[in-house]
Amino acid sequence: MPGNVTAICPGTFDPVTVGHLDIIRRGADKFGRVVVGLIEVPQRKSPLFTPDEREAFLCEALSGYGNVVVARFNELVVEFAQRWEARVILKGLRAISDFEYEFAMASLNRKLAPEIETVFMMASPEHGFLSSSGVREIAAFGGSVEDLVPPSVARRLAEMYPPRGL
Ligand code: ADP
Fold this sequence. Notes:
CATH topology: Rossmann fold
CATH superfamily: HUPs
Number of domains: 1
CATH class: Alpha Beta
Bound molecules: adenosine-5'-diphosphate
Structural class: alpha/beta
Low-confidence stretches: none
Largest sheet: 5 strands, parallel
Mean pLDDT: 94
């Protein structure tokens, strides 16, 4: 029964966007518990925000959800899932461009832990274009990201990169 199932939702969240939050909230509606897994030190990219900052943004944005937990990790995603007794890895899919990478990851994770199912939710149409890297780029050039991220993230980015008033 999904109501008893724990799902993990892993990511770098550098920073969390309204697209991530949409997937997490929809997951919290369908599964008993969602553990948002914050990858502390990603292999392929060096984050703009520290793990403490990324965690604080997530915790603040998700504070109203009783069945959502935020936890940091530095291990294989399937090991993190096993530690939390999760049977599901929940991922958001935006465009076809996400598919190839996510398909490969899901296949590798299935090989490592066949008991854990990767479940994909389609991004809501209004978030299909939204990525953390896009947000960082817009902010770095002084553009407004208010509609794309939670208020605390928008405030922090505006401090780091004073807005140009576009
Ligand atoms: P990003 O790809 O933005 O750097 P992460 O590495 O933190 O973000 O991604 C974590 C998960 O969130 C991935 O499964 C990714 O597909 C999903 N995700 C990211 N942005 C969105 C969005 N706008 N809508 C739905 N899912 C998303």
